[in-house]
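User: Continuing from earlier, I have the next pair ready.

Assistant: Great, send them over.

User: Here they are, in order.

Assistant: Folding the first of the pair now:
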Amino acid sequence: MPGKSLKVAVTAVVAAGALAGCGGQTRVGSAALVGGDRITVTSLDRTVRDWRGQFKDDPIANQIRANAGGLAPGIGGQDSETDMQGALSLLVNFRVADRVARRAGVSVPDGLADQTAALMDQRGGAASITLASGLPRSRTRDLARFIATQTVVMQKFGADLNNAQSPLTQRAAQQWGQLFQQTADGMHIKINPRFGRYDPTKVDIGPVAYELSSAETGTADT
């Protein structure tokens, strides 16, 4: 299942797949490196700043996020870092999805992304769904393309998109998740330690878990 940010958007449209990444060294000024594609700290800061300003003035986005168990934006501090982690997770997901489509041998025509955005409009508004996911309105088409990519790949795997509960669809969703994870692993995704690391089970970027030695924890080896 996806992390909390992506879950907000996909819950409103279709079921999402899984992503696992890896931490590592990043270039100075980089929030993440995804298969050689750089996401800068400056662009991430701007993305989250734009989102926060737009989100607070959109009651529909607030309701969608609340219904999906998402959190409202904080005012600085740790909550602000959580906002950054959620946005960065999505930006990484978008890049991995493009590679997944190539590996699956499918293309995502612009028309399908347009149709997906139109479906999002029917389910609460594409812009509001994008805001609820943790990204500003300018990223609406990116989110629609991500969902369209999953749709195309799952169709190739035999999904019955008219029945989300069918065994065929469930199996296709599992195959999508497996391919997503394998693709991400092969892209050598590196996250700036400031933003944490990927949780391979939850998909989100979460805090770095520091392992203490026995001396630091006050325990002794047996």
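And the other member of the pair:
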Amino acid sequence: MTPQEAIAALDKDIAAYGQPVTLKRGALSVETRAFVRGYKPAELIGGLKQGDSAVIFSPTGLKDWPDMKLKNGDQFVTAGKTRNIEIADPVYMGSTLVRANVTVRG
């Protein structure tokens, strides 16, 4: 699978099953889509807390975000609730960003 194929597959799934979200950093605000799910009790290790959520972004959805890089302290809004990005874990195939795995809290 090429990076472009991986991104296209993720884009298709997010379009079908993702939800609208807004990313904020200072005055910057970007609307996009992402997968959002809570962590299961067995996953609450290593500093994760009940109420934290896992979020998956496609690089396509981050195209209007600075350098397509999320960082600790950026804000995440979905369903009217503002939360803070705690961990941003980019996933690359070679040198190409193919997804961003993020933990949000709040």
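Worth noting for the second one:
The chain has one domain: 3-105. The chain has a mean pLDDT of 92.
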